[in-house]
Structures
1.
Amino acid sequence: MLFVVAPIIGTIYAIARLWQDLIGWQELSLFVGLYSLTGLGITVGYHQLLTHRSFETFPAVKALALILGSMAVQGSAIDWASDHLKHHAHADEAGDPHSPVEGLFHAHVGWLFSAPPADRERYGKRLMTDPLIV
Ligand SMILES: [Zn+2]
């Protein structure tokens, strides 16, 4: 919990303290731009492309989406997708790694500290056969 909240508070504090000295609109723009791009890497790349196979695309686009997703520091593509596939296999019941039944905090971030990682062999097997993802 401390490792999730402290960096956010520290970043906001640092921006406020260093505004106009070391941080200006250029840095803030980079922060917002990279936050948006890595968010797209997770939502479009890890979630829709890998986990749900919502669409297919060119290898270069797939690689870009996975690179952006990996820059979000949410773990490897295979582990992220395995966790999410496990979530959908057991949605809101025993075995769901981030079930909202255990509370909002647990569903959003608490599960990262208490749930064991999903079994890659069971949930991410098809992903491990794709050399681009591996
Ligand atoms: Zn999903």
Note: The two ends are 30 Å apart (CA to CA).
2.
Amino acid sequence: MFDRINDFILDTLFPVSCISCGKDDEWICEKCLNKISFKNIQVCPYCEKRITPNGYTCFECKKKYSLDGLLVAASYKDKFVSQAIHLYKYRFAEKISEPLGKIVLESLRQSEMPLPDMIIPIPLHPRRLRWRGFNQSELLAEYLEQKITPGFPIEVSNNLIRRIRYTEPQMKIKNKLQREKNIKNAFEIPRKSSDKTKNKRILLVDDVITTGATIFECAKMLKKSGAGEVFAIVIARQGNN
Ligand SMILES: [Zn+2]
Ligand SMILES: [Zn+2]
């Protein structure tokens, strides 16, 4: 009941309309959603130079790093995409998770990335979660859980990776090395969880990334805890592309 009253008040104060064409009642209408162009060229997530199928990590980078591949669904330069992400992240528009989930799902379907055993959203620190009220990556992961293989939901694990250190938002830090330093040792995978990750193929989910430091750090933790393969999917990556 309270939720419904809350929704009513919010809808009255901030009427919902498509951020692109202005059509009422939806943040992103079906027509505009279909106009988003998916990235058809993917690159290695680490060097961002070598073009690889499905955004797999290139041979050279694979020697040094943990993440096996990163699929970037759409371009951040697509104004519609960046607007939607911004709205999602900072205006607390929880309902936008569905159209954004569709973008991620469609990109996954168009790719040949192998199906995961488990989906893990990038966790927020409890303090930031309280402030924002929802974890935007978690909502995307839950959308995928239901839709990747309808009828056979793939497990979403929300508490396997824990955020144990409160960090500055990566968005506020410009320098790549500083971002790496900021996120280092920010996560923990309890030892008792390692039988859940052992030899598993894991898909990490996040909304938008820049240097990738957070996802790379999580991939490193997962491999340390015995994961077989770790892939990731994001709506967009800020920066060069
Ligand atoms: Zn529209
Ligand atoms: Zn590379």
Note: The first helix runs from residue 2 to 13.
